[in-house]
Amino acid sequence: SLLVAPVFSDDRVSYYVPEGRWTDFLTGRVIVGPRWVSETHGFLSLPLLVRPGSVIPIGDTDDRPDYDYASGVTFQVYEVADGATVSATVPTNGGAEALAVEVKRQGQTITANVRGEGDWRVLLVGITGVKSVEGGTMEASEQGVLIRPTAGTATVVITLAGIGD
Length: 165
Known about the structure:
Layout: E1 2-4, E2 11-24, E3 30-41, E4 48-50, E5 54-58, E6 71-78, E7 85-91, E8 97-106, E9 109-116, E10 119-125, E11 130-134, E12 136-140, E13 144-149, E14 155-160
Parallel strand pairs: 6-10
Antiparallel strand pairs: 1-4, 2-3, 2-4, 5-6, 7-8, 8-9, 9-14, 10-13, 11-14, 12-13
């Protein structure tokens, strides 16, 4: 789901982007391939692209590696195609399944179903128009629309806004 290009110098970096639409994980910018891309990166940044149809779980703790990964996790969802189902799993520190999400898209409806215990959210990356959310609330973010489920809810149903909505 991720394309990572190495950075060998503190200057211009060239890397190949395969066919399709790829989203820069850090900026949200969409890059369409196939083509070579040249960018400026330092040793503390790198090209990190996400393939369409991916779900990337992001934890809410960045000061230690051993925390409850299911607490405060945000499932970042990238360009789910109509009729597609995508999924992701969040492990416990011991490697067992703590949370799992399955995201389905049918037309303008996206359904996210979460299995397991934890505090979770769904971020629809690159989406700006949501008409309604059943089982939660929505708020705009820099990267898209953030869906917060109602406490105790395992499923949220999101209706995307169409043209003119």
